[in-house]
Design goal:
The complex is a heterodimer. Chain A is mainly α. Chain A has four helices and no strands. By secondary structure, chain B is mainly α. Helix content of chain B is 72%, strand content 0%. The two termini of chain B are 34 Å apart. In chain B, 46% of the residues are buried. The chains are: A mainly alpha, B mainly alpha. Chains A and B meet through helix 1, helix 2, helix 3 and helix 4 of A and helix 1, helix 2, helix 3, helix 4 and helix 5 of B.
């Protein structure tokens, strides 16, 4: 610890309160009579945000440096194909993850 | 029916369990390395409960950040949660007593599970939201405490295990793609994010992406699904 426990608690408190504030803010602002434009946003955003989160997860992948994002590409394609075929999350996700770990630890070491 | 609802919630939450236990342990290991015991990990996972923010928090604590820096950093890292709230407004406002906890516990992964869940006859959707939320937080707490307790003594080559989280988002993306014939919102999300990633780089692309996505969604409103209901 470089700072005192008391100051650590203060910093943690600030981070917790700010995070909670961000999560509660939409519910506080749009408590009554949510505008149509916000309802519209609420309906189409889930599709766009999941797309954004996929990109977010893969943000550290470098296409110029070895292994050029090949483990990620193979594993993502495997997950999509398995899921389109079986529609079973408990198959798609473990298979994709094991595939990625093998590629990372054994194939592209 | 409660048991059936729990079953659905538990099964859906399994991929998050894999991701959260691993990422939580990573956080716990980092934190104890800076001289904070498992009690601190427990406290932070109970009160902050935001994955990437808690990793940043380790840096802020060990670097002795100012209060203003901690505040601004939290906004930067967590501003995306505003969007989750906006898209869960109607659903969570009908949730009743559990509503405050549901809102508090709306992380990326919890959001990804609750945002696309279809109601079924044999389940209570509000209870489903609650089970998913509390299960996910319990995984995160367990991971972070275990990580802080075991610390660097832990020797298992877990490299790549966090891909479970990526795979989860890819699965949800695939499901949404099949469910909705109009792919424009999904394409806007991926397209704007990739462009912003190329322009702003990995550390700063989230906020420009969100602004770009909202602008484009409004500009393309006429081409979006279900526009007759708007």
């Amino acid at each position: 610890m470089t700072i005192s426990p008391a100051y650590s608690l203060i910093l943690i408190g600030i981070m917790a309160a700010t995070t909670a504030l961000l999560r509660f803010l939409p519910f506080l602002i749009f408590r009554h009579n949510t505008p149509q434009s916000i309802l519209y946003l609420g309906r189409v955003l889930p599709y766009a945000i999941i797309g954004m989160l996929v990109v977010y997860c893969l943000k550290g992948v470098s296409l110029v440096q070895s292994p050029h994002g090949i483990p990620e590409l193979i594993s993502v394609v495997l997950v999509v194909l398995l899921h389109k075929w079986k529609h079973n999350t408990l198959i798609s996700i473990p298979a994709g993850t094991i595939c990625y770990m093998v590629l990372l630890q054994v194939v592209f070491r | 029916m409660h048991r059936q609802t729990f079953r659905y919630a538990f099964i859906d939450s399994l991929p998050v369990m894999a991701g959260y236990v691993v990422l939580g342990m990573g956080f716990g290991i980092l934190l104890q390395d800076k001289g904070y015991s498992w009690l601190w990990a427990l406290l932070m996972s109970l009160t902050i409960y935001a994955g990437s923010m808690q990793y940043v928090a380790v840096d802020l604590l060990s670097g002795g950040a100012t209060m203003l820096a901690a505040f601004l950093m939290t906004i930067m890292v967590n501003v995306r949660h505003l969007f989750y709230g906006i898209s869960m407004l109607e659903k969570y406002n009908r949730a009743g007593k559990t509503r405050p906890y549901l809102i508090f516990a709306l992380t990326d992964e919890t959001y990804s599970l609750v945002c696309s869940k279809q109601e079924r006859e044999d389940m209570d959707i509000n209870l489903y939201y609650f089970f998913v939320s509390i299960l996910n937080q319990s995984y995160w707490i367990t991971g972070s405490v275990v990580g802080a307790l075991l610390g660097s003594a832990f020797h298992f080559n877990s490299a790549g295990l966090d891909f479970a989280m990526t795979a989860l988002f890819v699965v949800i993306f695939t499901e949404q793609w099949e469910k909705e014939k109009n792919h424009l919102p999904a394409l806007v999300g991926v397209g704007v994010s990739v462009i912003c990633l190329l322009i702003f780089g990995a550390s700063g692309f989230l906020i420009p992406s969100m602004i770009g996505i909202v602008i484009l969604l409004f500009l393309l409103k006429k081409r979006m699904p279900e526009q007759e209901n708007v």
